Amino acid sequence: MTFVGKVLVVVQVVLSVCFMTFAGAVYTVQTNWKKKADDLGKQVASLQSASRDADQEFTDYKTTATANLKAQKTRADTFQAQAAGLAQQVAALKADNERTATESNRQTELARVANIEAGERRKEALRQGAVNKNLHTLIDKLVAQVRGLEDAVYGRDRTMKAVSRRHTQLLQQVAFLRKVVRLNRLSTDPAEYAGKNTPPPSVTGVVLNTLPGQRQRATLIEISIGSDDGLVKGNKLDVYRSAGKGSYLGKIRIVYVTPDKSVGELIEKTKNGVIKRGDNATTKL
Amino acid sequence: MPPQNSESPSPNVYVGLLFVAVSALIAGCIFLALELNTYGWTSP
User: Fold this and answer.
1) How many separate domains does chain A show?
2) Is the reported ipTM for this assembly greater than 0.90?
3) Which residues in chain A are closer than 8 Å to B29, comparing Cβ atoms?
């Protein structure tokens, strides 16, 4: 073998070794880009799928959330309306509660007053019971007195009936006697007999006026004393004149009497003079 | 060593080197085939 052949053999060996070394190095330390690209493609697909799923989920969630939001808004509106109604109810209930409290206070006060009144009524009832007891005792006494008085009234009635019978008898007797008196032409006026039976009081009056009769003599004489001085119809008075020597003028009998004046008729005449205004009339002679 | 056949040359060191070079080429081809196998034998 020539020298050139030997050199070529050596060069071929070196280059073959270098080729094997580089091929082994490439196979050993190379990066498998295809596998990496496939992995990345799978990862991208997975991520895209996840993204689509997420988008779908987001869309679903958005739809659901929108529906929920709408429902919640509706519920919120409803709740607001209910809250407004409840607020009004609360206000009404508060007002009602205040009215109820006021009414309760008023009823409590009324109950207290009624209780006090009931207590006072019980006390009053006890007092009235005592009073009633006393009144019953008094009634018993009064009933006993009434019974006694009824007995007395019964006795009085009997007496009254007897007296009435006696009165009737006496009236019949009086009527009979009046009839007898009238038949005998006598007066039945007690006043005419009063002056006869009763002595006249010791009084002196003045002639106030005269009623002239025949020959200018007075037949009726008015004097200044009357029933207040004790004169009664039928009394007789003497008339005299104190002027001068004094003279007896006659006697009169009272026929009409007033409290402060009386009128008498002349029953005895004298010739000493005519009775005039200013003469005296007396019962003392 | 006595020559048995004068016409047939005896192997020497260079022949051995040629075997080494052939072995290295075969190994390099195997490595490249394996590398191409990872890419699926697809042309760019």
Assistant:
1) 2
2) no
3) 23
